[in-house]
Amino acid sequence: MNIYLLNLRVIIICLAFFLGEVSAQDENTDEPSVEDNARARMYYLEKPIVVDSNSSPTLTNVPLRRGIETSEIDLQSGADSETLQRYVLAIEMIEDTGGVWDSQLVEQLSTLGNLQQQRLNHPAAIEAYRRAIQINRIAQGLHTPDQIPFLENMIDSLVAAEDWEQADLYSDYLFFVQHKAYGINDPRLIPALERLASWNIRAFNLGYGDQLGARLSTAQMLLSAGLRAVVAHYGRRDERFLQYLKDLARSAYYVKMYPEYLAGLDQPEFRARQENLRQKLNSNTIYPRSFSLGEAALKDIINYHIQENGSVFLIAEAITHLADWYLLFDRRSNAQNRYLQAWSLLSTEPNGDQLKEKLFGHVVPLPTFMEGPKNLEMRASIPKVRSNLKYSTADVSFSVSITGGVRDLDVLTEENDENANLLSRLRRSIRFSKFRPVIENGQPVHSAGHVFRYRYWY
Description:
Layout: H1 2-27, H2 34-38, E1 44-45, E2 49-50, H3 70-74, H4 78-98, H5 105-118, H6 122-140, H7 148-160, H8 164-182, H9 190-206, H10 212-234, H11 239-257, H12 268-280, H13 291-307, H14 312-328, H15 332-347, H16 352-360, E3 364-365, E4 374-375, E5 391-400, E6 406-411, H17 420-431, E7 435-436, E8 438-440, E9 443-445, E10 447-457
Antiparallel strand pairs: 1-4, 1-10, 2-10, 3-7, 5-6, 5-10, 8-9
Helix pairs in contact: 4-5, 5-6, 5-7, 6-7, 7-8, 8-9, 9-10, 10-11, 10-12, 11-13, 13-14, 14-15
């Protein structure tokens, strides 16, 4: 009997403890605990802006979520709703008389998709475009180029709806259709090369895909092919020539920043896929590449400005960007020589002192051509986008060495239980970043007292 009573007491105590735990969890459902906040992960870090005592720094507007937003749709005018309804009725009438595969539906569905896309109702737009593509393929053939604008619009909505898997599949299919319709030597393929390259860079930044290194390899092949096509059909004076060079330098920097993602590129499945694309693009170059590709692109940008009789400042700025590239790769002697070259060039101008102050009088975060936020969680199983995250800011001060390294880092923003873990992650990221040092008399110098504001997403 004693053993029975003892066991009963244990059961009662355990039950009370369990019920207490459940009650505590219910009470804390709405508010995250300090421990949860301490475990918060920082996903994106934006390029910092200078905090000047004479002016208040202005951060760019926070991007709104690109997807279906009920409040925004409700604000649409009645005329828009009436137009939508007319197209829905027109589609129903065609279906009643000609069936659901009537080719007349293509134009109505594509226009309906455009209207839904403008209203930010991307799921409805995707469905309309998908039907238009299916009907068009039945009427015109599987690889008809008539479906290209529908595919492009649908991919835009898939990206806005953050359906990365379908956006990836249809991006590849779009390029397949364009390549089959035009061929590699047709100038109409140039926008297709640029679009698919941009998507692969975006997917890489999101951390989406089984082999991120293949994203960079694919992007570099497409950008190189696009650059060759622009030169062949329009010459080096075409404005797209300069943009392709900047994009190639950007992709080369990603290869440097994330070398761990290049592992596995020699696996048969990825090697076969890359070889297939290489044959389509008539390319013999092996990608991805880092230092040499970026160096060549930045040198071509210098030559572009020289040949186009660009201003002395533009040429000096392009030379400075090449010096920055050398600094990023610890080629310090090359960097110093190029900084001196740019400094000497500006010295020939009547307003040389003002130009040198503009280019070299302050430290600059590197690389200068990286505008998008840095993804700090590339290995996350599910890509995080800023529309799903919260953001905050922090002010920091530090000095910059002659080699561009951050020294004497001090976080000026007050630390508390909620942001301690995030600020610790911020410190680590800043310590590994590089800045163009202040240049005096053509030589990099150590400088202190720099204050920057960072915005981070978590």
